């Protein structure tokens, strides 16, 4: 476990295993610890990098607002300076949004893309979902979890929470047309009771050419913690294998 200076932030990361490189991008208010259940399924097949984005986990916050743009640039620098080769990106929540931007800006750095419970536009979040983060008990839990590893300490959590809330008001702001240029093989995954609307998830899936879709039944936005033994083997299979030719294609049917 080390930190590397990427621009203005000392970014924490950890790496395990051998094989093609996989970079795990965590959601908001959490850090790379959320991917502990992924390791048994992935480490035996891939070289797995866990990293904490600026203002999250072991990586300190820096002056200025948070944005998906700056976190995407951080991730691009991480791929160039630490990974040193194209990698598979697996992102959850905000991590999926960051991964999506990386694939748009630097497709040469991305082998395959797994977008779990992500949203390409801020209006994809269901109404009222973000209000839950105003609950005092929820905020105390998140702050304590943040303070366990953050070099900035638990008292800094309200600053990061405010930055995230401000970011979500206007970001991300991609359109389906923006996503048509993605040529990276992509798996779009979400729960059947997600914080992102199913309609938005379908729009994401439909906008990315030749993408695949997985809706995990009986789960919520935290599906990666709720059913890891189902989700990560499926992701590993997607990363390891070419698509199976289907017998009755509709969406993927060759042009006449």
Q: How would you summarize this macromolecular structure in one to three sentences?
A:
This protein has nine helices and eight strands.
How would you explain this protein's 3D organization?
- Helix 2 crosses helix 3 (94-105).
- The protein starts with a strand and ends in a 16-residue tail after the last helix.
- It has helices at residues 39-42, 68-83, 94-105, 136-147, 157-168, 176-179, 198-207, 223-226, 228-240; strands at residues 2-6, 9-16, 20-25, 46-51, 87-92, 110-116, 186-193, 212-220.
- It has one domain: Alpha/Beta hydrolase fold, catalytic domain (Rossmann fold, 3-Layer(aba) Sandwich), CATH 3.40.50.1820.
- An 8-stranded mixed beta sheet has the order 1-2-4-3-5-6-7-8, with helices on both faces.
- It contains 9 helices and 8 strands.
- Helix content is 34%, strand content 21%.
- The protein is globular and about 60 Å long.
- It is an alpha/beta fold.
Question: What topology does this entry show?
Answer:
Elements: E1 2-6, E2 9-16, E3 20-25, H1 39-42, E4 46-51, H2 68-83, E5 87-92, H3 94-105, E6 110-116, H4 136-147, H5 157-168, H6 176-179, E7 186-193, H7 198-207, E8 212-220, H8 223-226, H9 228-240
Helix pairs in contact: 2-3
The largest pleated sheet is described as:
8 strands, mixed
The helix content, as a percent range, equals: 25-40%
The CATH topology corresponds to: Rossmann fold
Given the C-alpha coordinates, what overall shape results? Answer: globular
Q: What is the tally of helical segments?
A: 9
For the termini, the CA-CA separation is 53 Å
Total beta strands: 8
Class of secondary structure makeup? alpha/beta
CATH superfamily: Alpha/Beta hydrolase fold, catalytic domain
Question: What is the CATH level 1 assignment?
Answer: Alpha Beta
